Amino acid sequence: MSSTSEHATPGFLVWRLSTKWRVAVDRAVAPLGLTHAQYSLVASLYGMHRAGQRPSQRQLADHTGLEPLYVSKLARALEAAGVVDRTRDPADPRAIRLSLTEDGREVARRAIGVVQGLLEQLLEPLGGLGGERTKAFSRELATLLDVSLDVSLRCADRLDERLADRCISRHTSRFTS
To answer: Exposed site from 18, 84, 107, 110, fewest CB < 10 Å?
Structure first.
């Protein structure tokens, strides 16, 4: 474990890992004309298509965890690039259905292969993608993702003032030392 990580909070480590992953995926899929966020949409559409689904932008937003407005923006950019088709849902004219074009399916297949290679590399210290430690790690992450958060809660509202001061001190020391 690096000296930066040794005394870090779990939140800081999750943030660092997330940032590291996003940058690695951005770099890896750039030659395919994608960003990490676009890859998330394309790969999700690919998987949903294989499952017989043609999701709306809202359904894709729910699936990816991205904001619906952001999914709309990404889908428009991917449509302009010839990767995604956007069509109005005949049953609900407010809804936009998404699907991959033929070129989009090819880009998705290639991008998924590239990102799978990255995932294998990242998870190698845990025994690789099929390793028991990786499976346990995935279960732990899923547990954390299932926690409902009330954005109105604040550290200082829930802790007495001294504990809040220690919490703040501990977090700021990560950035000053």
So the answer is: 18
Q: Which pTM was predicted?
A: 0.78
**Collapsing DSSP states into helix, strand and coil, what is residue 98?**
strand
Alpha-carbon distances, residue 129 vs 18, 50, 136, 151, 158 (angstroms): 17, 22, 11, 33, 38
The percent helix, strand, coil of the chain (3-state, each to 5) is 70, 10, 20
Query: Between β-strands 92-100 and 84-89, what pairing exists: parallel, antiparallel or unpaired?
Result: antiparallel
Give dist(CA 107, CA 29) in Å, integer.
10
Residue the block writes with tokens 């000053």: 176
Alpha-carbon distance of 32 to 46, in angstroms, equals 15
Distance from C-alpha of 89 to C-alpha of 2, rounded to nearest angstrom:
51
Count of beta carbons in the 10 Å neighbourhood of residue 105: 17
Residue in the structure block whose two tokens are 């894709």: 60
Q: pLDDT tens, 11-34?
A: 999 999 999 999 999 999 999 999
Q: How far apart are CA 42 and CA 3, in angstroms?
A: 37
